[in-house]
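I am writing to request your help with a piece of structural work I have in hand. Here, with my thanks, is the record as I have it:
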Amino acid sequence: MLSCNDPQIPTDNGNLIVRAAHTLRNRYGIRNGTQIHLEKQIPPGGGLGGGSSNAAICLLGLTQLWELRANLAELIEIGAGLGADVPFFLHGGSALATGIGTTISLLADVEPRHLLVVAPRATMSTARAYQALRSPALTTPEPDSILAISRGEAKSGDSDQWLQRGQLTNDFEQVIFDIEPEIERAKKALIQAGAGSALLAGSGSSVFGIFDTCEGQQRALEEIRAESGWRMFPCVTLSRDEYHRQLGLEWHS
């Protein structure tokens, strides 16, 4: 049984947490149930992977609660069946996701960066974003994927270079900004407030700016705070080991 502090969030099979619990229960023949409460703190539909991270944490938590003999590879397989982003949240840290996003190649962690996530008033559903991305203007006869999201020069394995000014890319921006100009305005506001780089998060509607120092992050927060209706979330990147420690994981991916 799932409950949530945000009435906008479904608590039935439409929620990945419920689906993750049912999948794990059926796979390992668990008869016991459980009550889960989701305290939603990030904006839904912001392109921040909230649903996928919830599913991953559900898998990890129930594995411990039900004392399952499930290893990381098994949980990744289950997670990939739930959603393309779920496997990443079972690893944490810096990683390159290829294929449909379920093939994870771990990269060296970057130095800690201070981020400011801005969720403007405008919203963008994932379905609408992908429909726009598949428009004739973006199609190609070549078999290679046109989704170059945040890859930079990923093959080199140097994840820190993605954070250099001008190196971050997201193919969704060229269509999302046309549909919702306010989202583009939020990105520009981050750059003007001193972010070294800024980018649309996933398929939107949130954007994030990257700052080298906490002081720069806080100055930007104060500068942008006056914008009516925008929600802002200051945060900091975590290394893979720190991510594992926070979750109490014993394995190392």
